[in-house]
Design brief:
Elements: E1 2-7, E2 21-22, E3 25-31, E4 38-43, E5 59-64, E6 74-76, E7 97-99, E8 106-110, H1 120-150, H2 155-168, H3 179-185, H4 214-218, H5 223-226
Antiparallel strand pairs: 1-2, 1-5, 3-4, 5-8, 6-7
Helix pairs in contact: 1-3
């Protein structure tokens, strides 16, 4: 019934480069009770490359297939079936049919920044990130012990922590990075002593689900974590 595809930011409507990309997988997951809403899951080939730009967007398109007769769409309710013969009719079962029509034959929607942790590339980067936390913590501790033992001052340690703080907040300002690169920045958050996912002293801390803006939300930096 539908053609489902996406176009990236290189697509040009003025006779330039024009490619409609197909999905790696598309699955209907649930038909809602109102018979008008369908939930579905899409899998893109390289999800970490989509939704990176703000002013120019990657778009998902859903078009009715050429030649498909949308006027033939109908749906009925079982309780409206009449199972007894009706006078003047030569058939037994009649159905109360409600017709539905599509307002549009084509529709497109902007593809947002994607975090697909089932993707092999992104799973690998997450594992590297998790191990990097311990590496950064070890470097800070070892440097503190050595500098204290040698009695040469801790200025190099403070400079290291200052740079880690600058790096940690780079993605949060006004630009986006390829999603798996977020994890490359996250280990530097230990310089802020951000080592808990949530506020550890109270399970229902009011700020654990609040964020300053969408960039902080993409980075999983809730106000609770910053506390």
């Amino acid at each position: 019934m539908f053609n489902i595809y996406w176009r990236d930011t290189t697509y040009s409507r003025r006779g330039g480069f024009q490619t409609n990309h197909t999905l790696k997988d598309f699955e209907l997951t649930r038909f809602s009770d109102d018979n008008q809403t369908v939930n579905f899951t899409m899998v893109f080939d390289e999800p970490y490359l989509l939704g990176l730009l703000i002013k120019k967007s990657d778009n998902l398109f859903i078009d009715v297939r050429p030649g498909f007769d949308t006027k033939g769409l109908f749906i009925y309710r079982e309780e409206d079936n009449i199972t007894q013969p009706v006078e003047g009719k030569d058939h037994i079962i009649h159905t109360n049919v409600t017709n539905y029509y599509l307002d549009k034959k084509t529709f497109y929607k902007r593809i947002p920044l994607l975090f697909d942790w089932n993707n092999n590339m992104m799973k690998t980067m997450r594992v590297i990130s998790q191990n990097s936390y311990w590496a950064v913590i070890s470097i800070i501790i070892i440097q503190f012990v050595l500098l204290s033992w040698r009695r040469v001052g801790l200025i190099t340690l403070w400079i290291l922590i200052e740079y880690l703080q600058l790096v940690a907040f780079m993605p949060i300002y006004n630009f986006r990075l390829i999603p798996y690169l977020y994890d490359a920045f996250k280990p530097t958050l230990v310089a802020h002593l951000i080592i808990f996912d949530k506020w550890p002293l109270w399970d229902n801390f009011v700020f654990d689900d609040d964020y300053f803006n969408d960039n902080y939300k993409n980075y999983w930096l809730s106000i609770g974590r910053l506390f």
